[in-house]
Design goal:
By secondary structure, the protein is mainly α. The chain has one domain. Helices cover about 35% and strands about 5% of the residues. It is built from two helices and two strands. It has helices at about 50, 80-110; strands spanning about 35, 65. The chain has a two-stranded antiparallel sheet. The protein starts with about 35 loop residues before the first strand and ends with a helix. The model has no long low-confidence stretch (mean pLDDT about 85). Bound molecules: iron/sulfur cluster and zinc ion. Zinc ion (ZN) binds near residues 7, 9, 20 and 23.
Amino acid sequence: MPSCPRCNCRIEQTQTVCPQCRSALTAYGHPGIPLHRATEDSFLCPTCAYELDDTCTFPQRPYAETCTLYRDVRAPKQSSQRQVSRGMSADLRSQLWWLGLLCIFGVAVLLAL
Ligand code: SF4
Ligand SMILES: [Zn+2]
């Protein structure tokens, strides 16, 4: 179960505001947009991948205390997530292949008539 980055109160996945300290847990009150928050006396940017590769264009850089795009460079690589996305693209490729085959079959039937 996740916890509030400010007060460490346990929170439900669907909560958008911490029930204890009332700090926002998601951006714009939308549960699908996580809002990353720096701990006290620190900023997010020094440990963010977009700061390190110099691709961030957010105006709050390099002193962001909250950010929707923060990607922690210290977090373990999410290989399973990459595998899922790779699997999805293979799935999409397979679907396109079948769609192409159906189109060829459809054209062949039309020409035969
Ligand atoms: S994405 Fe956010 S946390 Fe990362 S460097 Fe940009 S402003 Fe900072
Ligand atoms: Zn809290």
